[in-house]
Design a protein that fits this description.
Elements: H1 20-47, E1 49-50, E2 60-61, H2 65-72, H3 74-120, H4 132-141, H5 146-166
Antiparallel strand pairs: 1-2
Helix pairs in contact: 3-4, 4-5
């Protein structure tokens, strides 16, 4: 009936599968350009001028003069050094604390599995079901060989600490 009246079944641009995804992206791309693109371009333009905030029309083009002033700025050098120190120190601290927490949680989880193995098989026939955690448990609480337990733990901790650094 619609064809008899001259009305097409197509809905124009919205029915084209090649154009439709771009139509959905258009608002996001527009917002990105407005809120990121324009400020970046404006910042670059101002950096090439002797810009006066109180009288923007009085600014003159100076090219790379502001960049050469930046390289001679002693306060900027101190600020960059302090920022690098702060970032390295805070990231290192976060890494060490995060790694220590992960290691602690891993050890707790391992010892939770160690008690199940110990109760069910006691290491199994000829250590067939022995894990490091159950072996440490056995060494510590049945043989009272705490020195060997600590030595094994130190090696495991060193391996776990070095593994992310080597990747």
């Amino acid at each position: 009936m619609n064809e008899k009246m001259g009305i097409s079944q197509k809905r124009g641009i919205f029915s084209n599968p090649k154009i439709l995804p771009w139509l959905f992206l258009a608002p996001a791309v527009g917002l990105i350009l407005v809120f990121y693109g324009y400020p970046i371009i404006r910042t670059i333009a101002i950096s090439l001028r002797d810009y006066n905030v109180l009288n923007p029309s009085d600014s003159t083009f100076v090219g790379g003069k502001n960049f050469s002033r930046m390289l001679k700025d002693g306060v900027l050098k101190i600020s960059l050094k302090n920022t690098v120190i702060y970032v390295v120190a805070s990231l290192s601290l976060q890494f060490v604390l995060g790694f220590a927490l992960a290691l602690l949680l891993w050890v707790i989880w391992i010892f939770n599995s160690a008690d199940i193995i110990y109760v069910m098989t006691n290491g199994g026939p000829v250590n067939a079901t022995q894990t490091v955690a159950s072996y440490l448990f056995q060494l510590a609480y049945t043989k009272h060989d705490y020195s060997l337990v600590c030595a094994i733990s130190v090696v495991i901790m060193a391996v776990l600490f070095c593994t992310p650094l080597c990747i």
